Amino acid sequence: MKKKRILFVFAHPDDETFTSGVTICHYANQPDVSIHLLCATRGEAGKPGNPPICTQEELPFVREKELMQAAAILGIDSVEFMGYVDKQLSHVPAEELAAKIQDAIKQHQPQIVITFVPHGISGHPDHQAISAATRLAVERFGPDTPVQKLYYVTHATEKTFGDMAPPYTDPLSSITTLISAPQYVKQVAQALAAHRTQHLSVQRVFPGVLQGDTTYVRDTNYFIRVHLDDQPATADREKESDLFAGVLA
């Protein structure tokens, strides 16, 4: 087991690349860091592309393979699916989701856990549900928890988002942590292209990326550190540039 460990908890295949691409690459390229991904669904309620890459019935299996390909490109060490139905996470008891997330925490012993900001960036109910369940899992883990920091990944209001504005953003003043790694933009673009069935969404959010234009592939990811003592998350005057800042090995 490597000295430093990060667990990302998301709802669908492609969430990892859309939200945290350069961050994953940045830490995956550090020899003492391992990256693990817990994905709640296989994204079977999504579109199979236009023209379709596969049938709707084949979509969950294809998207699983796409995620594994993207994970390999980004440098993720392990991917686990929770096995829930796409677009149904909000109907699953939060305690049930949290218990499965705690199982992953026990297995991987991450010091850092990352999930969606509560509004989910896009407002997707699955994003919101997995965010709430992840916080619940971390807060209720107990005194032997390995988790030292929980982060919400978000999008800063002042920044562009391709040719669309996400429904929900957070002011730059609320951001506690910025991970900037422009050297990995091309790698992230390759991971985006691996999600072939989602080419419509990829092209909408990252115009031109499937044609080799990385202009809209974000070279900086934005995070809000969660205060786990029920205090509101507030930005320090000095923003972090390392998720492991202050973490005890």
Automatic annotation (TrEMBL):
InterPro entries: GlcNAc_PI_deacetylase-related, LmbE-like_dom_sf. It holds the Pfam family PIG-L. GO terms for molecular function: hydrolase activity, acting on carbon-nitrogen (but not peptide) bonds, in linear amides. Gene3D superfamilies: LmbE-like (3.40.50.10320). Signal peptide: none annotated. This is PIG-L family deacetylase. It comes from Brevibacillus composti.
